[in-house]
Amino acid sequence: MKKYDYLVVGAGLFGAVFAHEAKAAGKKVLVVEKRPHIGGNVYTEQIEGIHVHTYGAHIFHTNMKAVWKYVNQFAEFNRFTNAPVANYHGKIYSLPFNMYTFNRMWGVITPEEAKAEIRKQRQTAHIDFPKNLEEQAISLVGTDIYEKLIQGYTEKQWGRPCRNLPPFIIKRLPVRFTYDNNYFNALYQGIPVGGYTKMVSRMLEGIEVRLNTDYLKDKEALDHLAVHIIYTGPIDAYFHYCLGPLEYRNVRFETETLDIPNFQGNAVVNYTDRETPWTRIIEHKWFEFGKDEHGANLQKTIISREYPSEWKMGEEPYYPVNDEKNGALYQKYKALAESEPQVTFGGRLGEYKYYDMDAVIDSSLSLAKRLIK
Ligand code: FAD
Ligand code: UDP
Prior knowledge:
This protein is an alpha/beta fold. The chain has helices at residues 13-24, 65-72, 99-106, 111-124, 133-141, 143-158, 196-203, 219-225, 235-238, 324-338, 347-350, 357-371, and strands at 4-9, 29-32, 44-47, 50-53, 60-62, 85-88, 91-94, 188-190, 208-210, 226-231, 248-258, 268-271, 280-283, 291-292, 295-296, 301-310, 319-320, 343-345.
């Protein structure tokens, strides 16, 4: 007899949702997490009364009503709407690409004028069927916006020329012919009041969690404890990188507390030129309208600059690089995973997928429905 029905490796969103569902179904669950805290990459910590998004800005947004209802069991959400701005050589543009952006770029006023300008630039570039991110971007918004707001940012973010990146990455951003700065096409959007850590800790209430525990370092002993394993770490690490490592993009965050109340007047400012070494600056207090449960912090603010870099073995992996080469390698690891019926691989690292939070939750809930009898 095993002590637990499920061993969940990783206390990020995928693991926490699965563990919650398993416990709710009367199963015995153990969660192990190699970091010293729960939450995975959505972890937030309170500094100077401000919830700091330690692993980068996280804005919850979804069109899935069921997922929105699900997360609202664990947290109250504020009405934050992401409206980042782009700083290109000191000039400010609205994001995502919308009528404010087109007006600032070309002086156009009406949607028809904006469409005509984009059409003209697309035709000059001779793009019919976009095959890569560069062609996709020019086809969607024209050459000027590609050169000023996309090319520099994307090449810093991914460390690869836009011509070598898949088109889908840029299709994450809406293009709108309306005056609307909402970054997401999502019906539901917000930030959990009290931070994401509080939300995840509610998901994990009553569940045994062992922090600072690396499953792969103690695999044999931990495997003995449970009937089935849900593994949300990197799939290639599980197989000792036997087919070679998958590539990731890493991000280094430089966080500073400043003795001023307002640094940039917005939660997110993207630096879209090539020369600025960071991609964006986050000013954490604006995710909460400058407030937390103790009231406004009028004296200080906390900012984080994001510096992307190539991932090296031993570092925290952030973004899977979903290009052809890595996609093919992932398929080979996936085939290996199928020969381990007692283990299910899930989440951003387990499935090597550029997942948003809502998709991770949806995927974990579907797995729980399929697996837990
Ligand atoms: P993770 O959060 O990575 O959790 C996996 C956990 O497993 C980690 O805690 C890890 O330490 C642990 N682990 C790994 N290996 C082991 C091991 N061997 N033993 C024990 N534990 C292990 N999504 C949005 O919807 N909106 C956003 O605004 C947004 N912004 C983002 C910004 C950045 C910079 C990044 C990188 C991602 C962003 N995302 C956003 C995506 C979001 O972070 C993910 O969808 C989500 O956090 C994935 O959850 P997960 O549980 O799959 O992975
Ligand atoms: N992007 C860009 N300019 C910007 C913001 C985004 O070119 O100012 C591109 C970039 O290639 C990025 C992609 O759009 O990787 C998706 O952006 P998103 O904000 O969704 O990235 P994430 O929040 O996942 O880092």
